Amino acid sequence: MRRHLSRFRTASAAFGGPLERRLRRLSSLERREEARAFLDSYHDAVGTGAAGRARRWQEVRRELSRADHYEHTPEELAYGARVAWRNHARCIGRLFWESLEVVDCRGTSDPDGIAERMDRHLRDAHADGRIRSIISIFDPVRGTDIPAWIESDQISRYACHRTAGGGWIGDRQNIEDTMTAISMGWHPQDEPGPFDLLPWFIRDRQGRRIKVDLRPGAVREVAIRHPHADGLAALGLRWYSVPVVSGMILTIGGIDYPCAPFNGFYMGTEIASRNFADARRYDLLPQVADALAIPRDPSNPLWKDEALTELNRAVLHSYGEAGVTIVDHHTAAHQYMVFYNREQRAARRVAGDWRWLVPPQAGSAYDIFHLKMRNFHPVPNYYRHRGDDGLRLMPWYGDGYRRRPRIWRDRIMRRWKIWKRMAW
Question: Which one of 24, 185, 366, 380 is separated from 388 by 20 to 30 angstroms, measured CA to CA?
């Protein structure tokens, strides 16, 4: 692995590094409560007897009293990662949560080992094009000991270059990452283009940033072509096949795993309606409309809708032709409703974030559009920052019967925890 260290260290210990500022701050009682709630859920799922439950809780309680930390067994880790996916309110693809492949990488803490594992992760996830959902879980945070972690939001990302005329070419979401990569010696192999794959970054235990170059052929890309209109191919659009999310923190039973990259497979609108069409990303709708001979004038106010539909058709066609797993937004919405009904039959409420779950294309055409949702932020879960989606994460007791005084107590305690965690 070729790697390069940045010349700059993280902020001083007085203010905390970039990861410390993102991690949730739990009191000892909160950590103990989350651990107990998680272990109860795990033992209910596997059918452990009373003696086994009591013995395991005594072990965890002793570890928490001694070091404010405990180690999950491999079985607990796998169960927690899958339940975290099931609980994540912003994911529409949770129907397959039980099929998540969990790779226990605890003990692999050096950047070289992490880079080697991620290279294997990409190969295994893509396989022959039938994408497998995999998560690789590395060392957790132990007290003040911060492990090595992946700083990049995703392993695969496209660069964004400044043009001579003052514009931008590439994925505008990655302007800062591109500047960081260039400052650390990276440059595209040929002339800068809209689809130059960036290296990704690791922070080691000392907080130093390390640049990791993608191995040639590690990332499989799909060229985007329309099944009927040849003009779209002239734009040279393409996208990678496996989205490996590496910028989220996995939290299980009060223990945070800041390096837990995972992947699923794409929904067509993620690429066509968001990555290619968003004004803050590639902003390609005008070029797509012109390539498909869709008139952009006052007589056709729906030209954007036509261009979006045809661009989605092209993405689905191209991935299907390449033999790479992808799902259209209609199928994904139906799969979510299947998941929702299964959870209801299992007497579990479903956390949902309407803004993230309703597809950006033809939203009102699905039952999910009319579904009443509430995000009650259960744990285990994934989060990005303690001040945003991590602020309200805590155990959820609403699935079981509880007397009214206990319900009132839960509500008061929940509000107190949120108030306490806020940065006043």
Answer: 366
